[in-house]
């Protein structure tokens, strides 16, 4: 009985502890902005040796420094990032985030800082090309919630092309599954694909889909924190100072850095004149 | 750097992730214990009115019926408008409330397996309801509950790995970091992670079996 | 003071749904008296016993213990002064014999550990189980368990003992040891109300036999009178049945 008494006390302590963590949650410093990242998305954001790394991480830190913002990173799985931004659990989204019409309805984009095209990746020893890889009953892997998935759904699976899509929680898992022979190809952005090849994974590019997709940072819809102007200015300053190219080349040596700002699609509200922080820009 | 060097270098981070998982596990089981025991006691010994009993039934149905991922999202995002809640706190609440629904069942059948006459005898000797529960029923119910509770322990360890969807960086997420930063090695990394989960599970089960054996008295022999 | 009975039951009614089990029962128990309730099954004997300490709450009527009315407010204090022995013993399975006898002294009467232990050993000696203090209920025979449950009740120093068919769940060869303990208690001057079919005990130990049927007390009187020359036809019929089977 004494033993049980002890146990009850230990459990009570555990409960008090867990209530304590609840309290701690709401007492975060108010002027630190939380930057949501998907930290398993190299070269944009990942964790190595316990530290955040990647193009988006380094660039975001520079922008914050330039604009005098206090930031902290928070890792969330990719499908969770946009809901987290909508619910204002994070203030800024910084990852390899493609600008799409659908996303523009629920979050506000900064000016584009990168441009990608999608590529079809196949195993090194495969003889598929971009046409044979995406047809004839093939299964193509994409990351759930990604722009590649949306593009494939809009342009391929909804047409008479006979292709199955398989969603993964990350591209790395999709590539692994492909190398295990479960799927025949993976549709991914060219930046990531280059990374896989640089890392020495036995994959090759079967072909490119030129979609010229702009990538950008994002804030909650309506920009409740007033961050958009600062981020836009920060991006332009970063590009003009040449630091942007340095960061990018640090992660993807030899890549051509697109001009900043990139293509600004009309369907994005925040790209109409006057663009926050950059009144001369826009369409 | 091959994957074994990376694993060796990043092992402290895996252990940190394991630590997060263990604290989450302890907190959710403790919360579930308190909720489960409270629900069970109200159901068995509380007012019999529908006004009290019906909401408890609804609570159980909801938390046992809704997939845990959805619960995690509801607690993390859904409560965002009401009060700001950290990923970790949301995970404790979502998993703990659900564990409470399961634990209430474990405790209910544990209490029900005690012959009703013992409660009567305790009350007839002048014990209050609370005293009778505390001194006569609870020590016996705990003995009956340890077996099923061990199952709950094992299944909740696995559930903690889902907390990464709302941004809790626990063991599985740390493993994911290694996999993505090294481009692959899914099998090797997850084999190590599986081993860590296995060790925790084994240690927890052994502890609970030890407790069961320790508390065993004639009439409450450890059942195999 | 002397004329206040230990127990006064006045006009107790109890109904379960459509079935009125007790239809106005009154009786008194003087200090040191032993009364035995007999009657066919379903006559309401056990219900009456459980109504006395409100294990089943009476619908109507009053119970007084030593001149004090039992109410919802004082029920736990009153119950602590009424020992109750069940048909099924109802020992606490997770506790040793010693702890079974000690626990209510410690938790209800809040006696010191030493005092409770001393009283427990005394009562276990009285029921002849001094050597079983460390055993668990599951290790005892039915007769031994029932004697422990009597010791458990006695250790609370009750002013009244209620026995609800204490030998009915026992194998016939084990009833003797329990009856012997009850007999000894009656001789020692304990105030007792007993529901039992042990006619030998009733004849020897009872000051009065109360015959119940259909929720009423049909007849009561000293055992030698009631057993030999019952006034009521129904009492006679019941006694004949008992004689044939017992």
Q: What do these coordinates show?
A:
The complex is a heterotrimer of chains A (283), B (224) and C (246). Chain A is of the alpha/beta class and 283 residues long. Chain A has ten helices and 13 strands. Chain A has two domains: 32-113 and 216-271, Periplasmic binding protein-like II (D-Maltodextrin-Binding Protein, domain 2); 117-213, D-Maltodextrin-Binding Protein, domain 2 (3-Layer(aba) Sandwich). The longest helix of chain A is centred in the first third of the chain and has 24 residues, at 2-25. Chain A is globular and about 50 Å long. Chain A starts with a helix and ends in a 32-residue tail after the last helix. By secondary structure, chain B is mainly α. Chain B has a single domain, classed as MetI-like (MetI-like fold), CATH 1.10.3720. Chain B has eight helices and no strands. Chain C starts with 6 loop residues before the first strand and ends with a helix. In chain C, the strands form two sheets. In chain C, strands 6-7-8-3-9-10 form a six-stranded mixed beta sheet, sandwiched between helices. Chain C is an alpha/beta fold and 246 residues long. The chains are: A alpha/beta (283), B mainly alpha (224), C alpha/beta (246). Chains in contact: A-B, B-C. At the A-B interface, helix 1, strand 2, strand 3, helix 3 and helix 7 of A face helix 1, helix 4, helix 6, helix 7 and helix 8 of B.
Summarize the structure.
Chain A: This is Transporter substrate-binding domain-containing protein. The complex is a heterotrimer of chains A (283), B (224) and C (246). Chain A has 10 helices and 13 strands.
List the helices and strands and how they pair.
The complex is a heterotrimer of chains A (283), B (224) and C (246).
Chain A: H1 2-25, E1 32-37, E2 40-41, E3 45-48, E4 51-53, H2 55-67, E5 70-75, H3 78-86, E6 92-93, H4 101-104, E7 107-109, E8 114-123, H5 130-133, E9 138-143, H6 147-157, E10 163-168, H7 171-179, E11 185-189, H8 190-198, E12 203-215, E13 218-220, H9 228-241, H10 243-251
Parallel strand pairs in A: 1-5, 1-6, 9-10, 9-11
Antiparallel strand pairs in A: 2-3, 3-4, 6-13, 7-13, 8-11, 8-12
Chain B: H1 3-45, H2 50-65, H3 68-76, H4 87-112, H5 116-124, H6 129-160, H7 171-181, H8 186-215
Helix pairs in contact in B: 1-4, 1-6, 1-7, 1-8, 2-4, 3-4, 4-6, 5-6, 6-8, 7-8
Chain C: E1 7-16, E2 19-29, E3 34-38, H1 45-52, E4 60-65, E5 68-69, H2 75-79, E6 82-85, H3 97-107, H4 113-126, H5 142-154, E7 160-164, H6 172-187, E8 192-195, H7 199-205, E9 208-213, E10 216-221, H8 223-228, H9 233-245
Parallel strand pairs in C: 3-8, 3-9, 6-7, 7-8
Antiparallel strand pairs in C: 1-2, 1-4, 4-5, 9-10
Helix pairs in contact in C: 3-4, 3-5, 4-5, 5-6
